[in-house]
Amino acid sequence: MKLIHNFKSPNFNDRKSNNIEIIVIHYTALSSISNALKYLCSKKNKVSCHYLISQEGEIYSLVSEKKRAWHAGQSYWRGSTDINSISIGIELDFSPSDINNKFTLKLNSALIFLLTKLLKKYRISNENILGHSDIAPYRKIDPGKYFPWQILENKNLSYRPKLLNKSEIKNSIKKEWLNKKKLNSIKKKILFMLNFIGYDTSLAQKNKIYFDKLINAYSSHYKIYKNYYYNKKKIFDVIEVHFLNIILTKNKK
Description:
Number of domains: 2
Radius of gyration: 19 Å
Shape: elongated
Strand content: 5-15%
Helix content: 25-40%
Number of helices: 8
Oligomer: single chain
CATH topology of the largest domain: Lysozyme-like
């Protein structure tokens, strides 16, 4: 699959890190690939990405991987706040309210091709294949609740928490990591675990609107409920399994 180099964005600068650790998936929210190219390649808009994928599966290279594209904005993941310096941004030609409102087979195939290449090249963990809403849950919703994360998970190109069967391991870790922290409510436990996973929980601590935005961001990625609704018990169980997966992985290293 060939990359198209005919369009270049002027919106980039030098990276502040030599390590590329994250890939961020966005959607354009624009009505067509031509409008997306114009927007991302316009100096006045001050926004860009490394790659743009069309509905037809064409991959446009807009900014060199060596450079810091301006795609993440104000964002956070696992303690890092300059996500642009450590990431590659991929925009998808998709808009929820226009005719390009499908994640087509050609688009998905091109994304799989590109992610496979980038993960191998930079040795990026599939835990760090993220949506814009993962790194900016209070202001962004893309790639949205209909993005087919399961397709990427099936190719090991995105992280899927594994079910845990050994209750004694689960209980011992819960006791060590949750009870010792004196977290006396489900909400506090959820926020602690989400922060450990990587999310910015700062605004959600005391504000219900931001808490709901955070939960929606997590849930749209990990597909834990139908019709985009949740209850505390269900969301707690899923986040707990995700949290314990990471703890067990870290303990093996």
